[in-house]
Every structure is written in structure tokens, then in C-alpha cells.
Write a structure and sequence with these properties.
The protein is built from 23 helices and 16 strands. It has about 475 residues and is an alpha/beta fold.
């Protein structure tokens, strides 16, 4: 047995104007789940505590709550000392009970065809990754798009894709999905990462629905323009100045001894719009013994096409990019764009290893820069944090040069084609990010994604800088005093 102290959200609409946290001390068995803690409070301390549960084995989804800010199933998550247990971020009915009516009502039901059609084994296998949903609404509770625009949410999109694959269903599920906000998803992947059944809703449902929508001519006009630009130029953005690839050599040697060799996949934004940042990165790599090989044949990774469902010439981009590094015998390819890195790691099959620049720098180790007398906050790019599972490496680099103040890791609104296709939604999410930045009291914002950096800079009065730029500033300060 062990004694735990936990804080539990309490709210009774009959007597309370707002919710509050109450502390409880409970005695439970080793290995007890959060649900056991709630049972203990209800049975021995306060029988008025309200919460949902049913199966107790992770199959019904009834007991979903937030623990230390993250959605979990209370029956599956082990209880820890000093936990904070709160309801999902939905309308609260009482205590930990939330109103499920609207969101569950948005889940479509199968409409049978006049003649029954038996699904084939192949069709069943395609449906399987989408049918294990237990309707816990963890995904809905973390969806940023649903906070700021009309969107039926990830659970509804999952069901629309599941039904679109079912030959027994009579409805046009793709057109329904478009009407329900298919193109408002930012591809932040928060829904997938909190799903207790590990359903990859962005990749297995939303992007697949967008590809089907493209075949029906339902792709947003702005997304079509981006695809046309990529097809004609190999790049997803137009140039604003001489590009990075035009100004740099094929091989950049380090200042001293060679500690490692990487191929550099530059990406459209750092090549076309933010070349100075790419040069900052090169200087940091050179200072730390990294030889950088830069194939000039590389083109757009194809992320804007994948996220918006426009796949017609995607394979040709992939082949060109892979060949550009393979013919040079490169074993490790480095990215500094979170979106490019996530795409190359998850949507390509490459014969080489892919690493973000923060992985490269922390793996080889870097010369300590001078510390700058400023306070910074770090924005986690969705395609780095959730797309690549990279959280600690950027922070370890940031902490070497400035004081770090954390803020919630939420989407800035620039991904998934939302900035181009739904600018009002992107601006609303950008404003929300700006509010969180202001709360930190930070002097600057640091990130590691060009789209995030570009977008956030429009929604905060703080300077927004790439990690490598701040590291280089630390080195320049160090050189002044040495």
C-alpha cells in the first residue's frame, strides 16, 4: 500500500460559479490506476465526487480525464503522487463529467445501400486501422482547430474515412467531410498522440480524405496554386531574394577537425525566404566540426502536397530528392525544417538516416557559446515534437545560451495548409500562441521551423529566432571577449 496526495477538479453548477482544485490524501495498492484513486475518494472521503467509468479495462472510453494536463483513460494510467486530475477540455457537467452529446452526435452512422455488398478482405484490412475508436473524445479535447473554427473534429473525420472505405455505405462521405471542416485540420497530430488506441487520424484519415477530395475536384483553390507552383518550379514558395542554394558551395568544410559529415536538405522556406537563417546554421555546424554536403538537385520535400491530398507527382519529387543524396554516398541527411524532417522520416523510404539539426548538434556535442542576458521561450513545432518525437534536444541547446521559460506546446496555426487555405483560422491560432508568449514575459521566442517562425512573428511583438541564430549570437559574443 502507498499514500498519494492528489488534486481533483470539482465543480457543481448548482452551487459553484467556477471550478476549483481540491486536495485529497488516499491510500491505494502499488500499481493502482487513477480510477482506483477516484473510487477511493468517492467511497471513503467524498461520495459527491462525480466521474464516469464502465469497463475498467480500456475498452469503453468512459473514464477519460486529463492528468497533469494530458488526456488519459483513468482505468489504464498508473496513479502517481501529486497528480492533478481534471476533466477533458469540453463543457463540464459536474466535476470530472463532461458533456459528450454534441461530439458523439457528430459521428456519422453507416447508411446501408439498397443492395448488400460484402466487404472484401482487402477492404476490411484497410478499415481496421480506423475502427478501434472507443469514442473517449481525448482527440477532440486537444484539437486546436475546434477551438477557433467550425470543425466536426478528428473523431468525425476518422469515421468519415472509415465509412468511405466500406462498400456497404451509400453516402458521399468525402463531400460530407469537406462540409464538416476537412481542410481546417492543421496536421498538428495532437489527436493521434493522445489517442489511447493509437489511431493515426491525421495520416490515415484526414490526409486520405483530402486525397479523395482532390480526385473529386474539391481541393481548396489556394492549395491548387501551391501544387502548381511546386510542379513548375520544384518549390512551394516564390523567391524573395537570392536563394541559399545559389549562394553556397557543394561542400562546406568545418573550421577545424572533421567530427562528422551530413547531407543538408534545406527545404523551400530556408532556401527561398529565409536564407540568412540557413547560413547561421552552417556557421554553427562549421564551428563544431561538421562537414556539410549540399546537393543542388534537391527540391520540395512534398509536404504541402501530402498534407493537402495532392499526390499526382509526389513520387517524382521523392525520387529526385533521394537520388540527390544517394549518388553522393551520404549516410546521414540533416534537416532544419520541422515539416521537411517529419516528411522525410515518415513519408519517404530512404537508404540513409535522417536527423534534425538539433539531433546532429547534441549527438556530436557543441562548443559552449557565451550566455546571453535574455529570457527566451521555446515554441515546439508540431512536426518536430509530435511528428519526430523531438523535445529535449532543442531545449538543451537553448539552455546553453539563454534562460528558458516554458509555455504550453500548442499549434501556432501555420501547418496543414491552413495558413494558405484558411487564413482566418491560422490568424486565430497565431493570436492564441501570441497570448501564451506574452504570459511568459520572455524577451524573445525561439523555434526550429520556418513556417512557425514566420507565422508567429506576425502574432507577437517579441523577436522570433531560430535556435541556430541564437547559438551563433552566443558564439559572436564569446569571440568579442576572448
Amino acid at each position: 500500500m502507498k499514500t498519494l496526495t492528489v488534486s481533483v477538479y470539482r465543480f457543481d453548477p448548482i452551487i459553484d460559479n467556477s471550478g476549483r482544485l481540491e486536495s485529497y490524501s488516499v491510500e491505494v495498492n502499488d500499481g493502482a490506476r487513477i480510477l482506483h484513486v477516484l473510487h477511493n475518494i468517492h467511497d471513503y472521503i467524498d461520495p459527491t465526487l462525480s466521474y464516469r467509468y464502465c469497463c475498467g479495462s480500456g475498452q469503453c472510453g468512459s473514464c477519460a480525464v486529463r492528468v497533469n494536463g494530458e488526456p488519459v483513460l483513468a482505468c489504464m494510467e498508473e496513479a502517481q503522487d501529486n497528480m492533478v486530475i481534471e476533466p477533458l477540455k469540453l463543457a463540464v457537467t459536474k466535476d470530472l463529467v463532461v458533456d459528450l452529446t454534441e461530439n458523439l452526435g457528430a459521428i456519422a452512422s453507416l447508411i446501408p445501400k439498397a443492395e448488400f455488398v460484402m466487404p472484401t478482405k482487402e477492404q476490411i484490412d484497410r478499415i481496421k486501422p480506423l475502427r478501434s475508436c472507443i469514442e473517449c473524445l481525448c482527440c477532440v479535447s486537444v484539437c486546436p482547430a475546434m477551438d477557433v473554427t467550425k470543425f466536426f473534429g478528428p473523431i468525425a473525420m476518422r469515421q468519415e474515412m472509415r465509412l468511405s472505405l466500406d462498400p456497404r455505405d451509400a453516402n458521399d462521405r468525402v463531400s460530407e467531410a469537406v462540409e464538416e471542416g476537412l481542410f481546417t485540420c492543421t496536421s498538428c497530430q495532437a489527436c493521434w498522440k493522445v489517442c489511447p488506441k493509437d489511431i493515426e487520424i491525421p495520416g490515415k484519415a484526414i490526409e486520405k480524405l483530402r486525397a479523395l477530395a482532390n480526385r473529386k475536384g474539391l481541393t481548396l483553390p489556394r492549395h491548387q496554386e501551391v501544387a502548381a507552383l511546386i510542379q513548375s518550379t520544384g518549390r512551394s514558395v516564390t523567391r524573395s531574394e537570392p536563394t541559399f542554394l545559389e549562394q553556397v558551395g557543394d561542400v562546406i568544410e568545418p573550421n577545424g577537425q572533421v567530427k562528422g559529415i551530413v547531407g543538408f536538405f534545406v527545404g523551400c522556406m530556408y532556401n527561398m525566404r529565409l536564407p540568412k537563417t540557413a547560413f547561421d546554421a552552417i556557421e554553427v555546424l562549421r564551428r563544431n566540426g561538421i562537414r556539410v554536403v549540399i546537393p543542388k538537385e534537391q527540391v520540395c520535400c512534398g509536404s504541402p502536397l501530402i498534407r493537402t491530398g495532392q499526390l499526382a507527382f509526389l513520387d517524382s519529387l521523392k525520387r529526385r530528392n533521394i537520388d540527390a543524396f544517394v549518388i553522393r554516398g551520404i549516410d546521414t541527411v540533416m534537416t532544419m525544417c520541422a515539416g521537411c524532417g517529419s516528411t522525410l522520416k515518415n513519408d519517404y523510404r530512404t537508404p540513409f538516416v535522417l536527423k534534425d539539426i538539433s539531433e546532429i548538434l547534441t549527438t556530436y556535442g557543441i562548443e559552449p557559446p557565451a550566455r546571453l542576458p535574455i529570457k527566451a521561450t521555446y515554441h515546439d513545432p508540431c512536426h518536430l515534437l509530435r511528428g519526430q518525437g523531438i523535445r529535449d534536444q532543442p531545449r538543451s541547446l537553448v539552455k546553453m545560451v539563454v534562460d528558458l521559460v516554458e509555455m504550453p506546446s500548442i499549434c501556432c496555426g501555420s501547418g496543414g495548409g491552413v495558413r494558405s487555405g484558411n487564413p482566418d483560422e491560422a490568424a486565430a491560432l497565431g493570436n492564441r500562441r501570441g497570448e501564451e508568449i506574452k504570459k511568459t514575459g520572455a524577451d524573445i521566442v525561439i523555434s526550429s521551423c520556418p513556417f512557425c517562425e514566420f507565422h508567429i512573428s506576425e502574432h507577437t511583438d517579441r523577436p522570433v529566432k531560430n535556435i541556430t541564430t541564437v547559438l551563433l549570437e552566443g558564439y559572436k559574443e564569446k569571440d568579442k571577449v576572448s
